[in-house]
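Justification of resources, computational component.

The compute hours requested in this renewal are based largely on the per-chain cost of generating structure records like the one below. Each record pairs the submitted sequence with a full structure-token output. That output is archived, and it is also reused by downstream analysis tasks.
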Amino acid sequence: MRLYILPMPLSRESSYWMYPYWGEVVQGLDYFFVERCVRVRPWLQRAGLRSEAQLFEYNADYGDWDMEAYHQVFSSRAPAALLSEVGLAGVADPGYTVVRRAHAEGYTVVPLAGPSSITLALSASGLEGQRFTFWGYPPLEKKSRYRFLREVLKQAHFSTQILMETPARNNLLLEELLNQAPPELYLCIAHHLTALDGFIQTKPVGLWKPTKLPKAPTLFLLGR
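The structure output for this chain reads:
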């Protein structure tokens, strides 16, 4: 039996990532572990989702999928798929628990090719890709946030550091980085990747002018 990891678009403007095999997989499955049904169901239906197929939604309060979903899929030895809202499930998104269970049940895990904002940003940043750290979101509490950013900036002298914020706090994080990072350190802003208004720009912190980012997913990369 197989568990397929299906990539989802980073932007709803383009479906370039939907290789033909993606649709073939969707049409042949009855079970899907998804982050949010409302976000992925339209794409699955476009690809030929069966009317009888079941979508099991991630329980954010529990931090996992419900045990009933695991039992129904794995006890029947049925093939299944795993999807996040955008990008690749299990990479800065929920999903690793499903994959771990699949391995334990003797499933073959098959990740399909598709976009991951982290790898897209890193490959286009011009920063070192041999060694990097993805931090996720900074803490909200002021002192913890300051210590977090100081550690990120310290590590950026040795390897590429990647972090993100919620779209509403993008400009706060950008201001903090421009104020705290040494001017010779490189900063890459990867904004709304694959969207028509998206961009990736890299330059030393000292050459960045004050910039206002629209509310959209953004990654910040720092390195030498």
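The CA atoms of residues 136 and 211 lie 22 Å apart. The chain is about 30% helix and 20% strand.
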